[in-house]
Each structure stands twice: as structure tokens, then as C-alpha cells.
Amino acid sequence: MPFRFTPAMQKRLNRRLVHMLHNALHHFPELQGQTITVGYTRAHLGAAVREQCLIRLRARKVSYNTIGHELTHLVQGQNGIPEGEKQCDIWTLARSPLFCDEAPTYLRLPARVRLHWPAFAYAVRALCLRALEIRKTHQQYIRWLEQELLELSRRSAGSAASQLSLFEAAGQENPEAG
After folding, report:
1. 97 CB neighbour count, 10 Å cutoff
2. Residues 69, 47: Cα–Cα separation, whole Å
3. Are 92 and 68 in a shared domain?
4. DSSP letter, residue 49
């Protein structure tokens, strides 16, 4: 069994969480063969202690993004994954589309992107993958990424405004308004 649950988590454990943990672990070959202790937290979305191979999660309303983020903390320092929360967000999103179910916590996202996360999730993931390529030759890859996220938000605002003006020009109401 790749997971060991603390007594506090065992009291709150549910099938959904166990299923999500196993699905997420498939994307972390570096952790195969290790036993990961899963504890409970109420204070945060999650936490990790790499030295103890321990993650803490909420048992309810947990997302794949949070699970992936905490598992990424366990492998930071390996395979070129640097320390840091923003770095952890970037590597988590880049690792698999599975982890795009919720917006990342630490990466600076424009309000439009955060508010409409499902519409932007895969574009943000693509930018994270590109940022990791840029990192190979430029240190400021996080700054580059956050600037690209702003541009993504601006472009989407522009396309929404142009759609609205097309409806107005045609004398129709915007079908998405409402």
C-alpha cells in the first residue's frame, strides 16, 4: 500500500479521497515504492513535509490540484524541480492535465483567469509547460509566465468585447448575457 493514513485522517477518510490519491500518484514515478503518510489538516488546503514523506490534506472538497501540489513538494529538489510555492504550482500543472481541476494557489493569476478557471485551465497549463522550456535558458521564467498570464487575460477580455460588439452591430442580444 503506497499510503499510510494518520488516525486523524482515518476518521475522515472516504472512497473519493483514496481514489484521487491513487490516481494522482500514477503521475509521480519518483514516489513509486515509497510509503506516503497522509494526514489531516483543517488550517490549510494542504501541507507537506518532504523529510517524513508526509502530506496533509482536507478530507472533503480536496482537489487533484491540491493533492498534486503536495506530492510535488515531496519531489522538489529531485529531477531539477526547484524549491518554492510558485515553482511547485508550475510543476504541478505541467505534470498532468489531471491537476488542472482547480486554479493554483500561489501562482499570480489575473482575476479573470482565476474566476473563469475551467475556461483557462489548459491554456495556463500550456504556458506552464512553455515556462519550463524557457527556464532552461532564462532565470526569469516565473516573471515571464506571470506576464503571459496577464496577456492571456487581456486577450480573452478583448475577444469577449469584440463578440459583444458583433451582437450589437447585428442588432441582437448577446446569448451569453443573462
Report:
1. 13
2. 9
3. yes
4. E
Greatest C-alpha distance within the chain: 64
| pTM, entire model | 0.86
User: Which tens digit of pLDDT belongs to each residue from 116-139?
Assistant: 999 999 999 999 999 999 999 999
Are 58 and 42 contacting, i.e. CB atoms less than 8 angstroms apart? yes
Q: Are residues 20 and 71 in the same domain?
A: yes
Q: How far apart are CA 42 and CA 31, in angstroms?
A: 25
- Whole-number Cα distances in Å, 93 to 43, 97, 126, 138, 154: 23, 7, 9, 20, 21
Number of residues in the chain: 178
Among 76, 40, 65, which Cα is nearest to 55's? 40
Q: Give yes or no: residues 41 and 125 share one domain.
A: no
Domain span holding position 144: 108-178
Q: Indicate if the alpha-carbon torsion angle 25, 27, 28, 33 is positive or negative.
A: positive
Q: Which pLDDT band holds residue 169 (cuts at 50, 70, 90)?
A: very low
